[in-house]
Amino acid sequence: MANVVVIGAGMGGMACAARLASKGHAVTVLEHNETWGGKLGVVSHDGHVFDTGPSLLTLPAVYRDLFLKTGGALEDSIELVDLETAFRYQFADGTVLKMPGVGIGRCAEAIGDALGGESALQWREFMRRAAKMWAVTRKPFLESELHGMKSLVSMSWRIGDLRTISPTKTLREMAQHYISDPRLLTLVDRYATYTGSDPRRAPAALATVPYVEQMFGAYHVSGGLRELGRALYQRAIDLGVTFEFSSTVENIATEPKVSGVTLVGGRFVSADIVVANADASLVYGSLISATAQQQTKPARTALAKSTPSLSGFSILVAANGKTPDFEHHNVFFPQNYDAEFESVFGYTSKAKPVADPTIYICSPSDSKMTPDGKESWFLLVNAPRHDAAGGMDWNQPGLKENYADQILQTLAARGVDVTNRITWQAASSPADLERNTMAPGGSIYGTSSNGMRSAFLRPENVTKIPNLYLVGGSSHPGGGLPLVGMSAEIVANHIGRA
Ligand SMILES: Cc1cc2nc3c(=O)[nH]c(=O)nc-3n(C[C@H](O)[C@H](O)[C@H](O)COP(=O)(O)OP(=O)(O)OC[C@H]3O[C@@H](n4cnc5c(N)ncnc54)[C@H](O)[C@@H]3O)c2cc1C
């Protein structure tokens, strides 16, 4: 049996802790915050409950496997809700597309109804290609350890696989090969943002994101997504995992070998193995010694070459009444989507808040979250990360409040004016996200998928320092609840049984 310390009680940290405890290890989770969950946050106000992080669970098989392997079925702990309409998309020309919850055929039909029969046929073809991509990438890329560019080279003899993935094409280029309607292209673009990326730079393989959503479903969790975290926390407790909150790790002892961590305040917690759920850039940048940094130079160099993922600006809105023709998930697209990516990533000038952003609103049709006759909105727009040293400084006085007003006005111009029904609202900027989750700059997904080599630049789960591991959205295979769950499985399998 090994003594394992996990740094951080995000979903990756808790999933790994539960898996390791079920393999017979003694596990302690040290968390900076007063509670578990990390980005999977919640805010409650006067009967309204708001998920402040994830609002959509895809690929539930990852969590089904985690729960089954650690003691009991996921559905015994939480209720997954399969929404009849997964998304209401409204394009700049006013066209509305209501996408069903699961089933590529049903989704193609809905696309046909909204955008015409040609688009339905094109979507089916695009999804057929995405299905092949999924078959080729799932096992070797997502569910396995990745070893930088070596992994790509070792795959290169499978010419057929490479052709399927089209590693030199972007998501935008791949979509344009199949799809002609600009509205449907806009919809595909949006899936790049699910990994915090720009569709004009992210690889074609991200076509698997809509495929997974439509093939395996997009779920709500009764009571809110935070309930998934609660169930996982309880599972870890049941398995004997110890949690210490308000415990910030400031150093990992790695010389002559991993022996534990030092907390802010000086207490040393000994460990044979350390699993870091903290952001990989923090681990490599400030939690290990200069000698260990030297030892991990290739990983740090790769990380420096990556583009950090985009961040998010959110507004929680409690409102009286009901918005007509509204669904659980609603997306309002702007006229010029490219301008959004220019603002967020700041290619030609300094990154700045998006003037006319895509607006996403989760308005849960869930009585545990929304009082009768009212609405509990989680509104999110893409935003540049917080960078007070020369980039976008989200701490400027008044900026948050003004930008929140601007977004609500933009929404009103797109047909939904909630302003005179609001009973309470609270905005959160990328700087707040950084403060609340310890994610540098408030990046939602660690590093983005911008660039053809991005997947191979992402930090590996097994570091060059024996017995030091990385788990969670800033390491392989990336961010989002399913991938974070996969990273926990990779790490737990590598460590093995006690
Ligand atoms: C606004 C928003 C919307 C999102 N929407 C979705 C969605 O709809 N669907 C989806 O699948 N995903 C979504 N995501 C992404 C998803 O939330 C994340 O990928 C996932 O929750 C990250 O989990 P993680 O394990 O990487 O840990 P994190 O949640 O990043 O947690 C890391 C934890 O480590 C702690 N920590 C860091 N450093 C230290 C230290 N030195 N000492 C002690 N503790 C430390 C932090 O306090 C934190 O609790 C969203 C995220 C955000 C922010």
Automatic annotation (TrEMBL):
<dbReference type="GO" id="GO:0016491">
    <property type="term" value="F:oxidoreductase activity"/>
</dbReference>
<protein>
    <submittedName>
        <fullName>Unannotated protein</fullName>
    </submittedName>
</protein>
<dbReference type="GO" id="GO:0016117">
    <property type="term" value="P:carotenoid biosynthetic process"/>
</dbReference>
<dbReference type="InterPro" id="IPR036188">
    <property type="entry name" value="FAD/NAD-bd_sf"/>
</dbReference>
<dbReference type="InterPro" id="IPR002937">
    <property type="entry name" value="Amino_oxidase"/>
</dbReference>
<keyword id="KW-0560">Oxidoreductase</keyword>
<dbReference type="InterPro" id="IPR014105">
    <property type="entry name" value="Carotenoid/retinoid_OxRdtase"/>
</dbReference>
<feature type="domain" description="Amine oxidase">
    <location>
        <begin position="11"/>
        <end position="494"/>
    </location>
</feature>
<comment type="pathway">
    <text>Carotenoid biosynthesis.</text>
</comment>
<dbReference type="Pfam" id="PF01593">
    <property type="entry name" value="Amino_oxidase"/>
</dbReference>
<keyword id="KW-0125">Carotenoid biosynthesis</keyword>
